[in-house]
Amino acid sequence: MENNAETYQDAPLSIDTATGQAAEAELSSERVKHIFATIAKKYERFNAISSFGSYKLWLAGMMRQADIQPSDNVIDIAGGTGDVTFSVARAKHPAHIQCTDLVDEMLDVARAHRQTGAGGDVPIDFEVVDAQDIPYGDASFDALTMAYGIRNMPKRQQALSEMYRVLKPGGSFTCLEFSTPPNPLWRGLYHFYLKHLIPFWGGLITGDRDGFVYLSKSIEAFPDQREFAKMLEEAGFADVQWKNYTGGIAAVHTARKPE
Hints:
The chain is an alpha/beta fold. The protein has a single domain (25-256), classed as 3-Layer(aba) Sandwich (Rossmann fold). The protein is 44% helix and 19% strand. It has a seven-stranded mixed β-sheet, with helices on both faces. 45% of the residues are buried.
């Protein structure tokens, strides 16, 4: 199955994240807020079951690739329930992590994990932030992480430009996202799973089948590894690379803001 997203050069400024076609940003933003506010408390359980535990391997790979030092101030974009934030805290022990997300109900789950000891002694703050309009100053952070976030943003190029802006020169960018398996047979099986089983598991676990129909469509509509790499380069990033996991179902992209 071919990827449905337009190439980054031709992409409109704002899209419907379920189709990749031009649309008002509010359409996708309000839908994403509603879906994730509804499923926040069951989101982690869905991830574990629907990925057959593979999401832990993807996170571990992300941590191996992330260039984060103990002295770094880190921003986690679309931090959700805190999976990436707490993984960074355990693996990298940075000076500080700013965990951000568009949906406060997701951050409430992360805050609860923090209260039970997740993240250890690393200072972590939580704030509702729209990554398309980040409320922090230029060159505020040494490193930026994001998982499963850019796919849900209708103004993707604007969001990437904002991420570039808040990174210090030389700062690192690490992004885990669903992607496109290069093998045609594996890609066909994967898209069958997305279309039929993701909504099934989502409805069974959270009661919101329609929300997971959207999620499966958003994955299919997202640019493949090469096109997303071009989007990063268009935003100004250098040293753009990616590594596939589980045959390309997921990919970790890394990049750097030039010195």
